[in-house]
């Protein structure tokens, strides 16, 4: 399995378990007509988090909230303060029944296993996960589901050890091809940089002589490649990397739809390891173009490399934002940073624009958390702390028409200097 292909796993609904486990309206009587109208009313639930600095504001009342839908004021009919799974306080003009069952999605989009991942898992299982919670674990290789009943049947320590083993094994196996491609690209980029700088011999007028450095020879364990072969191999690896990293917008939308139909509160925690792609310095590529002006094939190959470097992000982030607003989740996007290598003639550039734009929109739309650190345990602790306490607001839209259109929600509170984070809308269906 490859990096970002984990997104495909989002949509495997057959997940493995960790345990065995008539008349017109005018003719209807008034009371019957009222019942019919109420049956089609959309009751909108809006999770809201209010912070002053880093501190959650937990003393708000129903009258403190103002909600608009497409700019039209709405009457808030109930507010519930939720801490973890408990309703700590309620204020109702109309009674609702909040579902506080928790569904956790732990997604590890990483290409190397780090010991601090054990700390993150330990914190989550021992401090966060409770009997009755559902856990979906997604690794670079497979998807798993821990049924709520498992928490009652098995000690937490055994569940923790099994989760650690799965994440470690699947990371080493599932990202093996990705790591291998990056390693070979690094060797080739370094070799091609050395050739043009004169650190390796390049006979004038010849591009077919052996030009493999000792590093290449030791890494590849095969006969030296010519300049042409090295350049073509680098392009081939870029293509393979692109295929492994391709993100399908349809998969994002399918995952949002899957989450929408799930009962209870839904928390998505994505731990994503930053990518550093070993790129040949553009100055070196231009030097090769000048050296081989009589070789249009070389020019075409190098131009193809530039096209890969300039790849556009094709995801419709607004469409993704609306889909995840509609699914009513709390999504948290955590970048796990690692040091990048410093090699002469080789640029280790971050390659996260596509995935970042999509998940940043998902987090923003759901009132989630986005942060970056080399410590995955610290990231997960911050994200969970930011999500465990929240308000649930309920209102009945003044516009009762189910026209399928997306409706923007805005929530304000009657307090200065606070940050209000909330679900940003829904589709009226």
What is the CA–CA distance across the termini?
Answer: 37 Å
> What portion of residues belong to β-strands?
15-25%
What is the average of the pLDDT values? 81
Overall radius of gyration: 27 Å
State the shape: elongated
The residue fraction in helices comes out at 25-40%
Give a description of the structure.
With 429 residues, this protein is an alpha/beta fold. α12 (317-326) runs parallel beside α13. Helices cover 40% and strands 25% of the residues. Residues 1-40 and 199-220 have low confidence and may be disordered. The protein is elongated, with a radius of gyration of 27 Å. The longest helix has 22 residues, at 176-197. It has one domain (1-19, 45-429).
Outline the secondary-structure elements.
Blueprint lengths: L5 H4 L6 E2 L12 H10 L4 E9 L2 E2 L8 E5 L2 E3 L1 E8 L2 E7 L9 E8 L6 H13 L5 E5 L4 E4 L3 H4 L2 H19 L1 H22 L16 H7 L6 H19 L3 H12 L4 E9 L2 E5 L1 H10 L4 H14 L7 H10 L3 E7 L9 E5 L2 H14 L2 E5 L2 H12 L1 E7 L10 E8 L5 E4 L2 E3 L2
Parallel strand pairs: 1-10, 8-9, 8-11, 11-13, 13-15
Antiparallel strand pairs: 2-3, 2-16, 2-18, 4-5, 4-17, 6-7, 6-16, 9-10, 12-14, 17-19
Helix pairs in contact: 3-5, 3-14, 6-7, 6-8, 8-11, 9-12, 10-11, 12-13
């Amino acid at each position: 399995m490859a990096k970002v292909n984990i997104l495909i796993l989002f949509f495997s609904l057959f997940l493995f378990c960790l345990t065995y486990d008539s008349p017109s309206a005018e003719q209807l009587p008034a009371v019957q007509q009222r019942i019919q109208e109420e049956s089609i009313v959309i009751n909108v639930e809006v999770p809201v988090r209010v912070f002053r600095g880093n501190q959650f504001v937990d003393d708000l009342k129903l009258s403190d909230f103002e909600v608009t839908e497409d700019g039209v004021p709405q009457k808030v009919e109930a507010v519930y303060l939720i801490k973890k799974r408990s309703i700590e306080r309620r204020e109702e003009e109309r009674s609702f029944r909040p579902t506080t069952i928790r569904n956790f999605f732990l997604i590890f989009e990483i290409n190397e296993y780090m010991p601090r991942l054990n700390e993150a898992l330990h914190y989550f299982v021992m401090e966060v996960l409770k009997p009755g919670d559902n856990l979906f674990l997604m690794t670079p290789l497979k998807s798993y589901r821990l049924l709520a009943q498992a928490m009652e049947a098995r000690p937490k320590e055994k569940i923790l050890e099994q989760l650690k083993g799965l994440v470690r094994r699947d990371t080493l196996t599932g990202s093996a091809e990705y790591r291998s491609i990056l390693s070979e690209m690094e060797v080739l980029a370094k070799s091609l940089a050395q050739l043009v700088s004169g650190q390796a011999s390049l006979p004038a007028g010849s591009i077919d002589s052996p030009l493999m450095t000792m590093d290449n020879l030791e890494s590849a364990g095969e006969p030296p490649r010519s300049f042409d072969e090295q350049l073509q191999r680098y392009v081939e690896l870029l293509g393979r990397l692109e295929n492994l990293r391709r993100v399908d917008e349809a998969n994002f939308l399918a995952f949002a739809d899957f989450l929408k139909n799930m009962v209870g509160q839904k928390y998505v925690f994505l731990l994503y390891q930053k990518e550093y792609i070993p790129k040949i310095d553009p100055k070196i590529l231009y030097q090769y173009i000048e050296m081989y002006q009589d070789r249009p094939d070389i020019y075409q190959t190098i131009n193809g490399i530039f096209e890969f470097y300039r790849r556009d992000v094709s995801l419709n982030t607004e469409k993704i934002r609306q889909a995840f607003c509609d699914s009513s989740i709390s999504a948290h996007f955590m970048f796990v940073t690692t040091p990048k290598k410093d090699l002469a003639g080789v640029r280790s550039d971050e390659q996260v624009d596509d995935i970042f734009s999509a998940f940043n929109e998902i987090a923003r739309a759901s009132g989630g958390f986005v942060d970056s650190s080399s410590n995955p345990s610290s990231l997960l602790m911050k994200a969970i702390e930011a999500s465990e306490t929240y308000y649930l607001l309920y209102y009945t839209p003044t516009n009762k028409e189910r026209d399928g259109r997306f409706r923007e929600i805005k929530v304000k509170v009657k307090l200065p200097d606070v940050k209000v984070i909330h679900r940003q809308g829904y589709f009226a269906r």
